[in-house]
Specification:
Elements (H helix, E strand, L loop, with lengths): L20 H18 L3 E2 L5 E3 H4 L13 E3 L6 E4 L4 H9 L9 E10 L11 E10 L4 H17 L5 E6 L3 H6 L6 H12 L3 H6 L8 H9 L3 E2 H10 L4 H20 L4 E5 L9 E10 L7 E8 L6 E9 H7 L8 E4 L5 H9 L3 E4 L7 H7 L4 E4 L2 E4 L6
Parallel strand pairs: 1-5, 7-9, 13-14, 13-15
Antiparallel strand pairs: 2-4, 3-4, 5-6, 6-12, 7-10, 8-9, 10-11, 11-12, 15-16
Helix pairs in contact: 1-4, 1-11, 4-10, 9-10
Length: 390
């Protein structure tokens, strides 16, 4: 019977990590963090919860509605469980590491919790692995983070990765003088999210002349990077919007210079999930995944009085775990009860998994099959178990 008792049920969006997935995730986290370290990113470990005024202020406001809150019985102040770790790293950079040399390269891993899941991600608790490059306003910083992400994902065994670049602040730059009321602004954002040029055109009478045409042209610049960049550069844009497109073009060129075969697409109007970003953004996909492997982009830290340019990256371990290629099971050898510790250690030093038989109620061969061992120790040698006849 597989029925789970009531006292073992978990809230929606929460789940136990079971073998072998829990081990696979731990190994993948270690691989990702090792890649970040090789690129010069130092590990930090933010707390699971903070006072809500610091955690959910500034760039954290974008996820304020997703945070569980509770009262600290000691200070009597309200705290929040972290729905994301980027605001925490920004706080660390702007306070305890305020005097560290810039650019500051920091990396992290850990669990986050959100009030609700989404259509794409139903989980409310999942692991994040990420990195933040703080204190550089150059396009080279954006390129570095993208290239590092590709290295890190490939190191776990994931391939066929596509980078989707965006410019969520481009629409704001185009429409900042468009004299739109709140209703038109909301309708325009919905039309752009739907990639519906006809809806944008229908709003033309409520927008400054020519702006709707520019936006429909921008909507047409979705697709492979080189083609999209050429289309964006052909559109008559204001100085601010033109500079954003130029920064996007530099990032594309920088990625392709290091990785000529990189698969890069552009969606210049996508802003969902990038509410606090101010420059080029990126999301990572694979043909083997059903959702985003990770995302990030340029933003401004705003802890205290200091404001710094930063580029961040967050990888989602739930999606990565589902995308990882299956790995072969490691051979395990059963140790009969009489096995001495020195022999067991020698096997482990050789790379074996050892499972000790704790009683002699069954023969070692039978016990080995029951516990999923491929070998049994006989006369000091690991002997492969014969397959059962069906």
């Amino acid at each position: 019977m597989n029925d789970i008792p009531d006292n073992a049920l978990l809230p929606a969006g929460m789940q136990d990590g079971l073998p072998p997935e829990a081990s696979m995730e731990a190994d993948a986290v270690g691989s990702l963090m090792a890649t970040f370290a090789a690129w010069g990113y130092q590990r930090v470990k933010p707390p699971l919860m903070e006072f809500e005024t610091s955690l959910l202020g500034g760039i954290g406001q974008a996820l304020s509605a997703e945070a569980f809150r509770l009262q600290d019985p000691i200070s009597r102040r309200m705290m929040a469980l972290r729905p994301d770790q980027t605001p925490q790293v920004a706080r660390i950079a702007g306070s305890r590491m305020a005097h560290s040399p810039r650019p500051l390269r920091l990396a992290y891993s850990g669990e986050i919790v959100r009030v609700r899941g989404s259509q794409i991600r139903s989980e409310r608790q999942f692991g994040q692995v990420g990195a933040e490059l703080i204190g550089s306003n150059t396009w080279q910083a954006d390129v570095e983070v993208v290239l590092m992400a590709l290295d890190a994902l490939e190191a776990t065994g994931i391939n066929d990765i596509t980078v989707d670049l965006g410019l969520p602040s481009l629409v704001s730059a185009i429409t900042k003088d468009a004299n739109m009321d709140e209703e038109t602004t909301s309708a325009l954002r919905t039309a752009l999210d739907r990639k519906d040029g006809s809806e944008v055109t229908a709003l033309e009478k409520n927008i400054t002349k020519g702006v709707a045409k520019i936006l429909t042209d921008v909507l047409g610049a979705v697709g492979p990077a080189t083609t999209a960049i050429n289309k964006l550069k052909s559109i008559k844009l204001g100085a601010e919007a033109k500079e954003l497109v130029e920064s996007l073009s530099r990032v594309v060129d920088g990625i392709l210079a290091a990785r000529p075969d990189a698969s890069i697409t552009i969606d210049p109007v996508e802003n969902r999930g990038f509410e606090y970003h101010t420059g080029v953004t990126f999301a990572f996909f694979s043909i083997h995944s059903r959702g985003e492997l990770g995302r990030g982009g340029r933003y401004q830290t705003d802890f205290g009085a200091s404001v710094e340019q930063a580029t961040g990256l967050t990888l989602f371990m739930d999606t990565i775990l589902k995308t990882l290629p299956a790995r072969p099971a490691k051979d395990a050898v059963l140790l009969p009860p009489e096995t001495i510790d020195a022999d067991a250690k020698k096997l482990r030093d050789e790379g074996w998994i050892t499972i000790r038989q704790l009683d002699d109620a069954a023969s070692p061969e039978i016990e080995a099959k029951r516990l999923g061992c491929s070998h049994v120790l006989i006369n000091g040698q690991a002997s492969k178990i014969k397959a059962s006849k069906i």
